[in-house]
Each structure stands twice: as structure tokens, then as C-alpha cells.
Amino acid sequence: MATPHGNPHRLAKAPVVVGVDGSFGSDLAVRWAAELAAQRGRTLLIAHGLDLAAMRSVVGGYDIAAAAFIDTARAQAAETVADAHRLATEVAPDLHITTETTDASAAEMLIQHSRTAYLVAIGATGTLGTIAHLGSTLLAVVSHGHGSIVVVRDTGTEQHIRTDGPVVVGIDGGPVSEAAIEAAFAEASARGTDLIATHSWNYWQLGDFAGEPYVLVTGEQIESTEDAILTERLAGWQEKYPDVAVTRKVYRTEPTEQLAEWSNSAQLIVVGSRGRGGFTGMLLGSTSHFLVQHAHCPVLVAHPA
To answer: How many Å is the Cα radius of gyration of the chain?
Structure first.
């Protein structure tokens, strides 16, 4: 349960990485990432992927047109990165910031960086072909990334990024939940806030969390059992993070509904990268998929180290 020795995401040199494309969602992600990097003494890496292969496929065999098109794209990329750098400096004037523009796609670049990043942040909205709302880049990074991938979502209020409220983690019976629990405790501790640990169950999934077959018992008995198991799963982490006050919530419903509701008051929602059962082919669970689309606060999708 302890953080493995040599975990690259916890090394002092591991940066906070943010993917940028110049959109409102991208700017929001830059603000969020800059503030977090400054608070935690991390370098901020602002990254942009050109995806030249896709550009060339659009232009085709017209070399002159392709060269002009790519030159324009490079100039726009430089401006996008420079704007993001200025924005991050406004948020945290003393922050150490580096930048990178690559010929690879944004998804390739961010997934590669996620192997050694403290975390990777991306905006929930963007421009077509880069970090679009649930576009190919966002889904690829959230599904295939490593460590903590944060989709920075707007609250929909005047306070675009909520800085108060608890950290809320959704826990199911799958092994992927352990990464989410670890990330949630670490975030709650770093933010000096409470942790709400939620677990949802229904009769169709009875026994998955407890690892027991279906039996005829009352809802109250099941809820009591599920709460006891949740308590046991959290116990070791509570010992590791004694500064974090934990509230357990067990719901007789689907997790999506409850976590979406919590996102109206939480400063961060934490979920695992896959759902109950953790099938290898299911790279993004249905709950995580829904939340990165609809939550009203940033969503951290935790991948096993």
C-alpha cells in the first residue's frame, strides 16, 4: 500500500505537465496547473503537440502547400505556448516554467510525459483536433496515460475553479480503486481538506465489492456490510495520512449519479481508470467516462503506478 520505491511520479524533479491549445478550457487547465505546481514546489511544463503527420495527410502530396501550412501551424503553436506561459506567470510569478512544442500528436506527447510527470492536466474543452471536448486527444490521454491524469472542468459559476470543498473519491470492488484511494488521500492531505470516500452498490452487483456470491439479505444488512468493507479498505491509508479527516458514504445506487452530485461542491473528484471488474480492454470505465464529460470540478483519473 505504501508508495513504491522509485515511483517516478513522486520524484522531486517530476513536473506538472499541462497540454495547451489556446482554448478557454486549455487556459483554465493552465491556471489550475500553475497554481498547483507553485503550491507543491514543482516545475510546470507547458506542452503543445502539432501532429504534423495529420497535417501532411490533409494537404496530401502538395509539398509547397504543406510547407506553408506547417510554417503557419508552427507560428500559431509558438504563440499558443507563449500565451500559456504568460498566463501561468500571472498566476504564479515565481513559478519555474518550461515549454515544449513537438511534431508528434498531443495525445502521443502527453501520454509519454505522463510516465514521469507528477501529473498531467488537460482542459475539458478545446479546439477541433487538439484537446477537444471528449475528443480523441482527451480520451486517449485519460485512457492510456500513466499516474494521475486531471481533466480540468469549469464549475459553471463565476468561480471557474473551486478552491474549497472536499476531495471526493469513488471506490468500487476492483483493484484499480487502490490507485484512486492513494491519490485521493495524497490530494486531500496536500490541500488540507477533508476526504469523502464513496461507494455505491445495487442488487445487480451484490457481492462484487465484498467478493461474496449473491445471498438473500436485506438492503440494510448489505449496506452495513459494504460500509464495514469500505472502512477496512481505508484503514491503512488513514494510518498513513492521519491528518486527513475521512467521511464514508455508502449509496444504494449507481456511482455516477452520486459523484456527479458531489462535483457541485468538491474541489476535486478522484476515480480509477477502469470500472468494476477492471477488464483490460475497458480502458476507461463508464463512471470515469461520464465524469470527465459532466463533472462541475476537476476530475483526477488515477492509473496504477
So the answer is: 20
> What span, in angstroms and rounded, lies between the C-alpha atoms of 227 and 221?
10
User: Within 177-263, where are the H helices?
Assistant: 177-191, 219-240, 255-262
Distance between CA 140 and CA 195 in Å, rounded? 28
Cα of 235 vs its chain's centroid, Å = 24
Q: Which helix or strand (DSSP H or E) is residue 65 part of?
A: helix 63-91
Name residue, grid cell 498547483. Answer: 36
CB atoms within 10 A of CB 286: 14
pLDDT in tens, 214-247: 555 555 766 777 788 888 889 899 999 999 999 9
Confidence of residue 39 (pLDDT cuts 50, 70, 90): very high
Q: What is the tens place of the pLDDT at every residue in 273-303?
A: 874 444 344 456 788 989 998 999 999 999 9
> Distance between CA 256 and CA 293 in Å, rounded?
11
**pLDDT attached to residue 43:** 98
Q: For 67-124, what is each residue's pLDDT tens digit?
A: 787 888 899 999 999 999 999 999 999 999 999 999 999 999 999 999 999 999 999 8
Nearest Cα residue to 269 out of 200, 178, 133, 166: 166
What is the residue whose three cell numbers read 489556446?
22
In sequence order, which residues have a C-beta less than 8 Å from that of residue 72 and are 6 or more positions away? none
CA pair distance 280, 260, nearest whole angstrom: 25
Burial 20-54, CB ≥16 within 10 A → b, else e: bbbbebbbbbbbbbbbbbbeeebbbbbbbbbbbee
Cα 223 → chain centroid: 29
User: What average pLDDT does the chain have?
Assistant: 85
What DSSP designation does 2 have?
P
Amino acid at 133: H
pTM: 0.87
